[in-house]
Amino acid sequence: MHGWAGQRLRVYLTEGKIVKEAVSEELGLRYLGGRGLNSRVLLEEMPPHANPLGPDSVLAVATGTLSGTFAPASARWTVSAKSPITMGFGDGNGGGDFAAGLKFAGYDQVIFYGQSPKPVYLLIDGDHVALKDATHLWGKTLSETRDLLVKDLGGQEISYLAIGPAGENLSLVTKVFCNTRAGGKGGMGAVAGAKKLKAIVVCGTTRPVKVARPADFYNAVKRAHRKVSASPFFKMMREGGSLNWMRISANNGCMPARNMQAGYFEGWQKLTAEVYEKHYAVKPLTCFACPIRCSSYFRVKEGSYATFGSNQQYGTIYPFTVRLGIDNMEFALKATTVCDELGLDTHLCGAVISFAMEAWQRGLLSLEDTDGLDLSWGNIEAVMKLLPKVAYREGFGAVLADGSKKASEQIPGSEVCLVQVKGMDVSHMYPGPGEGRDWQLAYSTATRGPDHLRGSGGYGKDNPRLVKILGEAGAKALLDPQNYKGQGVNIALSNYFAGIVHSLGLCTRVTGVYGAKNNLLDEYDLAELFSTATGIDASGDDLMKAGERICNVERLFNVREGFGRKDDMPPERFFVEGISPGRAVPGPTGINRARYEEMLDEYYAFNGWDSDGVPTKKKLAELGLDCFDWQAGPASRATDYTKQS
Ligand code: SF4
Questions:
Q1: Cα of 14 from ligand 1 centre, angstroms
Q2: Which residues line ligand 1 (CB under 6 A)?
Q3: Three-state SS at 429
Q4: Ligand 1 center to residue 295 CA distance, Å?
Q5: CA neighbor of 360 nearest in space, from 321, 399, 331, 314
Q6: 3 — phi, psi (to 5°)?
Q7: What is the pLDDT of residue 232?
Q8: In this predicted model, what pLDDT tens digit does every residue of 565-603 receive, in sequence order?
Q9: Which one is the CATH code of 437-622: 2.40.128.20, 3.65.10.10, 3.40.50.280, 1.10.599.10?
Q10: Which fold has domain 216-225+244-425?
Q11: Residue nearest (by alpha carbon) to ligand 1 atom 5
Q12: Strands (E), 68-166
C-alpha cells in the first residue's frame, strides 16, 4: 500500500492478546485514516449504551493518511472513544511526533478492548509488539513517565502517548498526551485509565512511508508549502501562535469572561501574544513536518510561578485567566505546566473551576463545601490548590473531576451556572458582537460536544463550492457576524472539510477550516496530496464525500445513544440578547432563538437529516452506510478477532 502503512493492531487488554490485521484500501478510500477510521470502528464495534469506563468500551488511536510524509503539518494523531462526559461520540487529535512514529513502525491504527487486570503499556518495536508491565509507571507524572520509559528501553529515542495521574484516577477532565501536545477532550485520558493503559510507546525499527508517485507528490507538497507560507495566517501563527486569539477575541467581544457571563475581559492586554513573546518565549517548537511552528518553549524565571514548559496556546492561557477573572500570564503558564504533568485538559479544567467560581459568586457554595477554599474570581492560590485535587479526585476536587454538568447535580441551584452543550462545557466563544453566529451552530452541532475544530469559523467563504450553492451575494453575506442565513450550508460543508483534514492527519492550521480568506489549503489541494501519495485518484468532491460519510457515522453513533435536536442547542444564557461595547466592534450579543432554530433546520436539511437530526435512509444509501446494521453495533459483526492470531 502507498500512503497508509496497511496494518492495524487489535489489543485485547483483558486477555493480554494482540492481533495484527490488514487495513483494506477500500476502507482507506471511504474513511481516509485518523479520525475517519476510528469513527467507523466506534460505530461498528462499541456496544450501544456501554459504559465508557467499563470493559465494553473501545479506545482507538490512529494516524492520518499523510502522517509520516513531509506534507505540511501532517503530524496529527487521533484518539477516539465514547466520552464519559457527554456519553456520546468522543475524540480529539494532537500533534508532536507520535503519528509519524506509529506510521514508521508500520501501523495505521491501534484499537484497545477490555480492561487490563494491572497497569500496562503497549510497546511497538516494528514487528515486535507486546504489552509490558507498567506498575512502576502508575502514579507518575507525564515527564517522570517519559524518563522511566526511555530508561526502560535502554535510552533509545521513543515516540509515545501517555496519560497522567488524572487519567489513572478517572478524572474526566483529562486528555491523552504526546509530551505537552494533548488530544482527546471529553475524557479520553480517563477511558485509557479505566483500561489501566498508561502509554503506547513506539521505538526501534522504522519503515519509511511509501508514496505512489514520488515526483508528483514532491511537487504537490512544494505547492502546498508555498501556499501556506504565503498566507498572512502563517506569519501570525509564527509570532505567538494561537495566543493571537486573545486580541482577536477582545476585539470581537467573544471572550469567555468569568464563566461566559460576559464577552469581554478587562485585563486581556496583559495576556497577549506580544507579552508572551517579549517576556517568556525561549525558543520555537514545532510538530513533525510542520513549517508553521506555532508554539515555543517558555520560561518564567523567578517568583511564585517560576516554571519551564512548552506549547503555549490560547487554549492553555484563557482557561486560567479570562475564564477565572485573572490577569496574570505567569500564573497561567505555571498552571499549564501543572496540567501537562498531571494529565489534565486545560480547557475543561478551567471551565469546571469557573463554573464553581460562578456558583460561589451566587452564594451556592461555602467554605464548608470547598475544603476551605475561597472561590472568589481571581483567587489564584485557590486555583493552584484545586488542580491536584481535581486530578487525584480529592475532597471538592472529586466533585469537579466529573465536569460541570455532573458537578451541578451535587450543588443545588447551580444549573444556572452551566454553559454547556451535550453535557460538556463550551470552551471559547461567547456570542459577542464581532463573532459569527456560525460559530454557535458549529459548537452546538459538533459530534464530540462543543468544539472549535469541527468547523467553527466556517468553510472558506470564497470557496467555489460554497459560492455555487449560495451564490456570490449569499456567500458574501456570511461575512456579517449577525447573519444566520446560509450558515447551515456553511457549517455542514465546514464539518465535511474538517473530517478530511483530521483523517488525513493534517493540522487545521494549514487548511481553510478557519476561512479561505487566509488562502490556506482547500480540498482541491488536499486531493492532490492524497492522490499522489496513495496512487488512488480522488477529486475534491470525492474527499468531501468521505468527510460527509465520517460526519454521518459519528452522528449515527450519537443518535444510537439517544441524542437528537435537543442536544444541538447552545447554552441557555447565550439566548439572552443584549448589547456589548466589545472593544472595537460594539453591537449585539446573544443568539436569537427563532433564527437559531431556522439555521438548525437549514443545517439538517442540507445534511439530508430529518427534523430531529437523524440521517435519512436515502442519505445513508447515498453514503453507502446502509450496508450494515448501525443500531446493532458489534452484534452485527460475524468476526471474532480474539480467535485470530
Ligand atoms: S501548526 Fe502548530 S499545532 Fe499545528 S502541526 Fe504545526 S506546530 Fe503543531
A1: 36
A2: 73, 75, 95, 286-287, 290, 292-295, 507, 509
A3: coil
A4: 7
A5: 399
A6: 80, -75
A7: 85
A8: 999 999 999 999 888 766 667 788 999 999 999 999 999
A9: 1.10.599.10
A10: 1.10.569
A11: 73
A12: 77-82, 89-94, 109-113, 120-125, 128-133, 158-162
Per-residue b or e along 534-544, where b marks 16 or more CB atoms closer than 10 Å to that residue's CB: bbbebebebbb
Burial of 256 (0-12, 13-18, 19+ CB in 10 A): buried
Q: How far apart are CA 449 and CA 343, in angstroms?
A: 20
pLDDT digits (tens, 9 = 90+) for 39-72: 999 999 999 999 999 999 999 999 999 999 999 9
> Sorting pLDDT into bands at 50, 70 and 90, what band is 427?
confident
Joined together, the cell numbers standing for residue 22 give: 490488514
Rg (CA), the chain: 23
Gap from CA of 293 to ligand 1 centroid (Å): 6
Q: Annotate 200-226 with DSSP letters as a single string.
A: EEEES---PPP-SSHHHHHHHHHHHHH
Nearest ligand 1 atom to alpha carbon 286: 7
Residues of the chain with CATH 3.60.9.10: 7-203
The ranges of the chain annotated as CATH 1.10.569.10 are 216-225+244-425
Query: Residue 197: which residues within 8 A CB-CB, separation 6 or more?
Result: 13, 59, 112, 116, 120, 121, 122, 163
Second CATH level (architecture) for the domain 7-203: 4-Layer Sandwich (3.60)
Say what the pLDDT of residue 454 is: 82
What distances in angstroms separate CA 567 from CA 408, 561, 613, one per listed residue? 18, 12, 10
The residue type found at 148 is L
How high is the pLDDT of residue 457? 65
Single pTM value for the model: 0.96
Q: Which atom of ligand 1 is nearest to the CA of 237?
A: 1
CA dist 273 and 256 (Å) reads: 17
> Which residue among 237, 285, 290 has the greatest number of ligand 1 atoms within 8 angstroms of its CB, and so is best to mutate?
290
DSSP-derived letter for residue 616 is P
DSSP per-residue codes, 509-565: GGBGGG-GGG--B-HHHHHHHHHHHHS----HHHHHHHHHHHHHHHHHHHHHTT--G
Distance (angstroms) between ligand 1 centre and the Cα of 596 equals 33
pLDDT computed for residue 645 by the predictor: 33
Task: Name, in order, each residue with C-beta under 8 angstroms of 378's C-beta and a sequence gap of 6 or more.
Answer: 324, 325, 326
The answer to whether the CB of 577 falls within 8 A of the CB of 590 is yes
Q: Where do the CATH 1.10.599.10 domains begin and end in the chain?
A: 437-622
